[in-house]
Amino acid sequence: MLGRQGNRRLVLAADAAARAAGLSVGIPASKAQVLVPNLQSFDLDAAADAEALERMALWSLRYAPIVAADPPDGLIIDTTGADHLHGGEDAMLEGLVSRMAASGIEARAAVADTWGAAHA
């Protein structure tokens, strides 16, 4: 995904295939296009991304009753009292990440006693 930071057009997100081809977040778009000549890129649509994140937060209510979007690309899920319904923290986390992967969403997840610790 490409976007602007000031006057520079940069890679703002890269999927696994793009990273395998040598691309990384933060490199200039022109360099990315040289490294991968047939690069398929998309411009950032911040409004659509925010809307999609809100939909993901609503979808995540299946795991716990307290969920919030953490823009630009995160979710906070308070699983207090709910993780046992999904086989425990580890099983719940695995289920969440695997369901997202099945939908084409690359996700990282963490469980911790506080939001700050999970985010670190």
Task: Describe what this molecule looks like in 3D.
The chain is 38% helix and 15% strand. It has 5 helices and 4 strands, in the order ββαααββαα. The strands form 2 sheets. Strands 1-2 form a two-stranded antiparallel sheet. Strands 3-4 form a two-stranded antiparallel ribbon.
Instruction: Provide the gyration radius in Å.
Output: 17 Å
Mean pLDDT: 91
Overall number of domains: 2
Strand portion, in percent? 15-25%
Uncertain runs: none
Helical amount among residues, as a percent range?
Answer: 25-40%
- Find the count of extended strands (DSSP E, 2+ residues): 4
Gap between N and C termini, in Å? 24 Å
Name the strands of the widest sheet in spatial order. 1-2
Shape: elongated
Helical segment count: 5
H-E string: EEHHHEEHH
Main sheet summary: 2 strands, antiparallel
Structural class: alpha+beta
